[in-house]
Amino acid sequence: MSNVQIMTGNSAAAWGARLSKVQVVSAYPITPSTSVTETIANWVERGELKAEYVRVESEHSVMTVCVSASTVGARVFTSTSSHGLLYMHEQLHWAAGSRLPIVLCCVNRGVGAPWSIFNDQQDSIAQRDTGWIQIYCRDNQEIIDTVIQAYRIAEQVYCPVMVCYDGFVLSHTMMPVEIPDAEKVCEFLPPYKPHTILSPEDPRNINPVIFPWQRRDAEGVLRDGYMDMRWKLQHALEGSRDVIVHTCRDYAELFGRDHGGMLWSYRADDAEVLLAGMGSLATEATMAADLLREGGIRAGVVGIRVYRPFPREEIREAFRNIPAIVIFEKNISYGYEGALCADIKAALYGTGIQTPVHNYIAGLGGRDVKATELAEATRSSLAAIAAGKKEQQTWLNCVTEL
Amino acid sequence: MPEKLFKVNSEEYILPGNRACSGCGLSIAYRYVLKALRENTILTLPASCLTVLHGLYPITSVGIPCLNCTFASTAASASGLVAGLAAMNRSDITVVAIAGDGGTFDIGIQALSGAAERGTDFIFVCYDNEGYMNTGTQRSSATPMGALTTTTPVLTKQQNKKDMMKIMEGHDIPYLATCSPAFPIDLYDKFVKAKRIKGTRYVQIATPCPPGWVFPPKDTVKIGRLAVETGITVLYEIENGKFRFTGRSKTLAEKGTRAPVVNFVEKQGRYKKMSMEQLGQFQRWVDGKWNEYLRRAEA
Amino acid sequence: MEIKDDNISAMCKPSIGEAGKTGDWRDATPVIDHGKCIASVKNRPACYLCWLYCPEGIVKAGIPIEIDLNYCKGCGICAEECPARAITMVMHEEVKK
Fold this sequence. Notes:
The complex is a heterotrimer of chains A (402), B (299) and C (97). With 402 residues, chain A is α/β, with parallel strands linked by helices. Chain A folds into 2 domains: 4-188, Rossmann fold; 264-395, Rossmann fold (3-Layer(aba) Sandwich), CATH 3.40.50.920. Helices cover 40% and strands 18% of the residues of chain A. Chain A has helices at 9-19, 34-46, 59-71, 82-87, 89-97, 122-125, 140-157, 182-188, 226-255, 280-294, 312-318, 339-348, 371-386; strands at residues 4-7, 24-26, 52-54, 76-80, 103-108, 133-136, 161-166, 175-178, 205-206, 215-216, 222-223, 263-266, 273-277, 299-304, 306-308, 325-329, 357-361, 391-395. With 299 residues, chain B is an alpha/beta fold. Chain B has one domain (22-298): Thiamin diphosphate (ThDP)-binding fold, Pyr/PP domains (Rossmann fold). Chain B has helices at residues 2-6, 25-37, 49-54, 74-87, 102-106, 109-117, 164-169, 184-196, 210-213, 220-229, 247-255, 262-265, 276-298, and strands at residues 41-45, 59-60, 66-68, 94-100, 123-128, 175-179, 201-206, 236-239, 242-245. An 8-stranded mixed beta sheet of chain B has the order 3-1-4-5-7-6-8-9, with helices on both faces. In chain B, strand 8 and strand 9 (242-245) form a beta hairpin. Chain C has helices at 38-42, 49-53, 77-81, 93-96, and strands spanning 11-14, 28-32, 59-60, 66-67, 87-91. In chain C, the strands form 2 sheets. Chain C has a two-stranded antiparallel ribbon with strand order 2-5. A two-stranded antiparallel ribbon of chain C has the order 3-4. Chain C starts with 10 loop residues before the first strand and ends with a helix. The interface between B and C is large, with 39 and 43 residues.
């Protein structure tokens, strides 16, 4: 029995949390994520969602509440954007180091100064080193499905998951979304079994200072030093790749929707140029690819769905034998280049792939990005590549001189 | 045997061979805090002297479950424990946040105010040693006027101690109290009472610190006692808005024989640069607060 | 074969001596004169202020009282607070020099 409703991305995210039967929600209002938490508050106060709802006084406290509630075994959820995410940065590190399966929806928004309330991906990209799994959603259906998948992934690998989607573009745009059957979701999500022990029955001290070196405990067992513990987190992130792929496949079997695992491609098989991007920008790129094909250029798209762990193998496979690569992204690592471009180029290192890679910084602070612009940029890059320009950083539709 | 004499729980929850300083005022206080709270407790604490007392991985010196958290987040960490335990149907466990003055008055104040305003069902304990002692004695808003610290190394602290009790009172919470390790039974009784009350409970422990205040470790209890004798530390409770002196402070309030603050100040190296003017100001500040408490006690 | 650390985050178990034998820290050792100690003199539980104020909780409040010298940090609070002056902090020879 299909239950399709028209809803915003934020509603989809809230529904994902509701179906996942989250037990503790703590969130702080920030544009454009606020309605996620408002929707949940409504459900909790009406008794439609049985969860503890903690109306904390800042985002730093949001993530702190998530950490301690998750430590005692509760399934937790939160959402935020931009400066809210930045404010909890310290706690993002803490959550990952604590190995807690927290799920956070980041409704992507630009960061100040000066203020922007509009969409770009600088906020979540800037958190890529924290040890969180990051998944970028293309549309509202993917949001609800990914939040549910996120709990299964997180609780299996004991790493927190950030489900990212573009502010206003997805968060406030209504699309048809099929709400998965609640019982099927219960079947899909086993209960959360914490690895943390915080209980009077077995008193432990969790996450105090750890030495640089290994140290024996009272029973003579040689316990980790800081770096060994950190290697475990890296190992878990890298290992989560398989879990993400299987989870996506299992979800597809049960619910009939496959969002592509680590990355998806569109008209890429015979492509002479591949456009790459994340989130709604990648969706826009599919329209650009169609336009280019109408004009005789065999364009395709690679949409990176999972940014961390970085899909090294999938990228190498996707970009093999492709004459030109054009990467569009809504972020910049100041003093260098777009983070996605830098990571893709690094993944190609040592493989013998010599393809020119052009980087386009687009849509910062919510500047509109049209498919026609992406197509035009691609044409321009193809010309530059033919003239021998292997690398290029262009800021799309932007004043680039003083 | 001493438990019958003093009417306290005989269990010791802090194991010997821990990293607290020799003569640490917090160590004395903490013994009685934990004796009062007993096993059915979960603690959360930020970066502070207590983190060090609790020990480094993989061994802990304390036999009560504890969750470490970042410096600013203690009360929020407790809020998450309360919510998580409620979700797991374990609300019978007492959640206790315990932070130093830095983690309470300064960096921790926002989260604490939020948790108290929400009426979070937990106990927040501040052990106030009047500075950031774990990192070597930097000034906090709890440092009294005239004291030397490494960040007020020449001119001394210029401002009076922040009245955190007044700030917490502004949150409409059912129980607040001050106490001191120099009067451990008064401290113990307050924690036994606090454990039974529902809602946000705030307890502040006036904690002498030998290295930070610069006095020999053998004098920790003596200094703590002198703080109460002079009225610098006042032992009281505010239960549902009603103020009440307790213990030695009650006796002093009734007999009116506080010692002059100079008796306290002259025993500590941190006051060696205190000017006569500052001393006078300090005496007037202590007198002013004391008189305010007297008025409240009479009301 | 060395057992590996199975913790994925830092979870500690309680044990005595986290900082080692902290008795090593002290410059002076408490010496008890049981002829003056009130509990010993009265031969019943009495006073025990040393037990009350010990920051380490290593005074055994029996008859006679005992101090665990493995872990006594030598703060001297017990000596300072004893109303019968039954405890003396005896400075170690190396320190006296």
